[in-house]
Design a protein that fits this description.
Blueprint: H1 5-12, H2 16-20, H3 32-35, H4 39-60, H5 64-86, H6 90-103, H7 108-120, H8 124-132, H9 141-154, H10 158-170, H11 176-190, H12 194-207, H13 211-235, E1 238-249, E2 266-277, E3 280-281, E4 285-287, E5 290-300, H14 307-310, E6 315-320, E7 323-329, E8 332-347, E9 355-370, E10 375-388, E11 401-413, E12 421-433, E13 440-452, E14 457-469, E15 478-491, E16 496-509, E17 516-531
Antiparallel strand pairs: 1-2, 1-17, 2-5, 3-4, 4-7, 5-6, 6-8, 7-8, 8-9, 9-10, 10-11, 11-12, 12-13, 13-14, 14-15, 15-16, 16-17
Length: 532
C-alpha cells in the first residue's frame, strides 16, 4: 500500500521552517549544468545575471569619487539590512539589501545575504537564481551546497535537492554536513524510500554534535519504524482471533445463596473468536468491520449438567463496523470513532436448545485526546436499543429498553515506555425500559494500576464501585456493588498470550434476594493472527 508521503511528514510534525532558518549564515553556489535544472530555473538565473550586469554598467559610469560615495552609502544600507535580519524582520531586511545592491552591485556578499533573506521570505526561485550566479565567488562550498539544496527542497525538486544534500554531507563540515544529512532523510521520506531515510537519520546520529538535531533524528527513526509497521499491517486485510478458557464462579446466578434451592457454584468453559476486514486503512482513518462469536458452557461444582446454572450461559453473535478518524486538537493528537453494530443473545432458559433472548442495535462513539504529555482521555457516548424476545409476566417486567451510556476514561503514563499506568473510568448508564421494574440509572467508577511484572508478564489491579437504582420499580430496589480484581497477561509469543483474572465482588441490595458476594478465577488463552 502506498500512502501519500506528505501526510506522513505532517504526522511526524517536523518544523521545516525552523530548520531552514538556522543561525548559520552562508552563501551558495552551484553550476546549473551540473544541477541540470529545468529550463525555467536556468532562465531565472540568466535574468538575475542580466540585471546585475546592467547595474554594474550603470555604476561604472560614475566618477571614482562618486563610486566611492555610493559604496559607502550601500554599506550603510547593508548593515541596516543585517540588523533587521538578526531580528527576524526579513521583509524589511530584503528591502535594505536590495537598496545596497542598487548602489553597489559588485559585492557578492550583498547578493549572498539577499538570497538567504529571499529564502526566508519564501521566494525560493529567485533565491536559487541569485545563488547560482555566485559560482565564481569565494563562498564556502559546503554552504553553497546546503542552501542550494534547501531552495530545491522547498521547490519540491527532490531529486535535484538530494544530490546537493549528499554533497553537503560529503564535505564533512561540523555544522552543515549533519544538517545536510538530516535533509537527505527528509528528502528520501518525500520520495517514499524509508529504508534510505532511516540510514540518513542514523548518519546524523553518527556525525552530529548537536543534541537537539540528534533528538530529532532519533524521533524520525522511531516514526519511520512505526510507519513501516503500519504499512505491514495495512497489507494484511484480514485478521482473526480465537480464545478458549476456563473459569470457576462461586455464585454464577448472582443471587443470595439462601434463596436458591440449587447450588450456585459453577465451572465454566469459555470460547469464541473474531474475524475482521480492513475495508479502509489509512493513517488518518480506518473502517474495519468485524464479526465475533462468544459462548459459555457451565457445569455445577460436581461437574454435572444443571439446567438452572446452564440457563445463565450466553451465546452471543455481534457484528460491528467501527470507523476511526485521526486529527489534531489544540496541537495534540486526537481521534474520533463511530461504531454501529448489531448483536443477538441466545440462552437455553431451561430448554434443550437455545433461543433468541435479546437483539440489540447500537452506536458507540468516542473522542480520544491528550490533555497533558502523560494524560490521555476517552470521552464516550453510547446508545443501544435492546429488544427482549421473552414474553413478560406483566407489562412492568418487560426488558425491552433504550440505553444511553456517557462517560470518560483516563490513562496516566508513569514512565516513558508507557507500560506503567494509572487508569480510571467514570460512567453513567441510563436504562429506559418499557417495563418499570427494569428501568434504572447506574453510576459507575473504577480505578486501577497496571505495570510489568517481568519481561513477559503484565499485571494490573482494579477497584470498581457502582450503584444501580430501579427508581420506577414497584419494589423500589437499589443495589450497591463493589469489586476488586487482580489480573495478569503473559505474552507467550507475538500471537499467543495467556490471561489470568481473580475477582471478588460484594453486592448489597435493598432486596435481600439480590444481596450476594462471590469470587471467580478465570484463565484464558488468546491467539491473534492475520492473513491475505
Amino acid at each position: 500500500m502506498k500512502i501519500h508521503s506528505t501526510i506522513f511528514i505532517l504526522i511526524l510534525g517536523f518544523n521545516f521552517a525552523a530548520l531552514a532558518q538556522s543561525d548559520v549564515t552562508v552563501s551558495l553556489v552551484e553550476d546549473p549544468k551540473v544541477r541540470n535544472l529545468p529550463n525555467t530555473y536556468l532562465q531565472d538565473q540568466l535574468q538575475e545575471q542580466g540585471k546585475r550586469n546592467l547595474l554594474l554598467q550603470q555604476q561604472r559610469k560614475n566618477s571614482k569619487q562618486g563610486q566611492e560615495d555610493l559604496k559607502n552609502k550601500a554599506n550603510l544600507y547593508y548593515k541596516k539590512g543585517r540588523d533587521l535580519f538578526a531580528t527576524n524582520d526579513f521583509v524589511n531586511a530584503q528591502k535594505y539589501y536590495e537598496k545596497a545592491i542598487s548602489l553597489d552591485a559588485s559585492v557578492d556578499q550583498y547578493y549572498h545575504e539577499l538570497a538567504i533573506t529571499l529564502l526566508k521570505n519564501g521566494n525560493f526561485r529567485r533565491s536559487l537564481a541569485i545563488l547560482s550566479n555566485l559560482e565564481d565567488s569565494n563562498a564556502n562550498q559546503t554552504e553553497v551546497q546546503y542552501y542550494s539544496a534547501l531552495n530545491l527542497f522547498r521547490l519540491k525538486k527532490y531529486e535535484y535537492a538530494l544530490k546537493q544534500f549528499e554533497s553537503t554531507r560529503d564535505m564533512n563540515d561540523e555544522i552543515l554536513s549533519p544538517l545536510g544529512t538530516m535533509y537527505m532523510g527528509l528528502t528520501y521520506m518525500q520520495l517514499e524510500d524509508y529504508a534510505k531515510a532511516k540510514e540518513a537519520f542514523q548518519g546524523v546520529l553518527d556525525t552530529s554534535k548537536d543534541s537537539d538535531l540528534d533528538t530529532k533524528a532519533e524521533s524520525y527513526i522511531e516514526s519511520i519504524e512505526r510507519y513501516e509497521m503500519f504499512l505491514q499491517e495495512a497489507a494484511k486485510k484480514w485478521a482473526y482471533s480465537l480464545f478458549v478458557g476456563t473459569s470457576y464462579d462461586s455464585n454464577v446466578l448472582n443471587m443470595a445463596a439462601t434463596n436458591i434451592s440449587t447450588g450456585t457454584e459453577a465451572f465454566r468453559l469459555l470460547y469464541g473468536g473474531n474475524i475482521s476486514y480492513k475495508a479502509l486503512y489509512r493513517e488518518r482513518y480506518s473502517l474495519i468491520p468485524s464479526l465475533s462469536i462468544t459462548d459459555i458452557y457451565s457445569w455445577n461444582k460436581d461437574f454435572e449438567s444443571d439446567a438452572t446454572i446452564q440457563g445463565t450461559d450466553p451465546l452471543q453473535f455481534d457484528f460491528s463496523s467501527p470507523f476511526r478518524y485521526n486529527f489534531s486538537l489544540f496541537g495534540k493528537a486526537a481521534s474520533v470513532g463511530l461504531s454501529p453494530g448489531y448483536s443477538h443473545l441466545y440462552m437455553s432458559l431451561g430448554q434443550s436448545s437455545r433461543e433468541l433472548v435479546f437483539s440489540s442495535g447500537y452506536l458507540r462513539t468516542h473522542l480520544s485526546t491528550s490533555h497533558m504529555d502523560k494524560l490521555y482521555t476517552d470521552y464516550k457516548v453510547d446508545y443501544s436499543r435492546d429488544t427482549s424476545h421473552l414474553v413478560p409476566t406483566t407489562p412492568a417486567d418487560s426488558q425491552t429498553a433504550s440505553k444511553v451510556t456517557v462517560g470518560v476514561s483516563n490513562y496516566y503514563l508513569l514512565n516513558q515506555e508507557g507500560n506503567k499506568t494509572l487508569f480510571s473510568d467514570i460512567l453513567y448508564i441510563m436504562n429506559d425500559a418499557d417495563g418499570d421494574n427494569n428501568t434504572y440509572n447506574k453510576p459507575l467508577i473504577n480505578f486501577g494500576h497496571s505495570r510489568p511484572l517481568s519481561e513477559k508478564w503484565m499485571g494490573y489491579a482494579k477497584v470498581e464501585y457502582f450503584q444501580q437504582d430501579f427508581k420506577d420499580a414497584a419494589s423500589d430496589r437499589s443495589d450497591k456493588n463493589i469489586s476488586i480484581s487482580l489480573g495478569g497477561n503473559y505474552a507467550w509469543s507475538d500471537k499467543n498470550s495467556v490471561s489470568l483474572t481473580l475477582l471478588y465482588m460484594d453486592n448489597s441490595s435493598s432486596l435481600t434476594f439480590y444481596s450476594y458476594d462471590k469470587f471467580s478465577l478465570t484463565a484464558i488463552w488468546n491467539f491473534n493472527s492475520s492473513f491475505f
